[in-house]
């Protein structure tokens, strides 16, 4: 799997209750799990709909990376990984560290 490579951030999908989705990937190669349920997106007719899945979870990790890296030109991807580790919770499960929805809001939404 490409996701099992050390330089890749492997992401899995949580439902809104911060539980792993029934069809989500899991294993010791998963780095993070993040919400992926009912994420607003566009369909082929440019209408906003709620989407769910690992694709939405991966998009949120990409959003966090973009946000983090844009804050300071000196930031790099290894610093982003350290930042993610500081803003995630270890889980007893085999699906990586959890990044809960309230953490995403706190990190990205400025009050």
Describe this structure in words.
- The chain is α/β, with parallel strands linked by helices and 111 residues long.
- The protein is built from three helices and five strands.
- The protein has helices at residues 54-71, 77-86, 101-108, and strands at residues 11-14, 32-35, 39-42, 48-51, 97-99.
- The strands form two sheets. Strands 1-2-5 form a three-stranded parallel beta sheet. A two-stranded antiparallel ribbon has the order 3-4.
- A hairpin with a 5-residue loop joins β3 (39-42) and β4.
- It starts with 10 loop residues before the first strand and ends with a helix.
Overall strand count = 5
Beta-sheet strand percentage? 15-25%
Q: In what order do the strands lie side by side in the largest sheet?
A: 1-2-5
Question: Which regions have little confidence, pLDDT < 50, spanning 5+ residues?
Answer: none
Distance between the termini: 40 Å
Q: Which radius of gyration do the C-alpha atoms yield?
A: 14 Å
Assign the structural class, choosing from mainly alpha, mainly beta, alpha/beta, alpha+beta, or little secondary structure.
alpha/beta
pLDDT averaged residue by residue: 83
The major β-sheet equals: 3 strands, parallel
Percentage of helical residues?
25-40%
Number of helices: 3
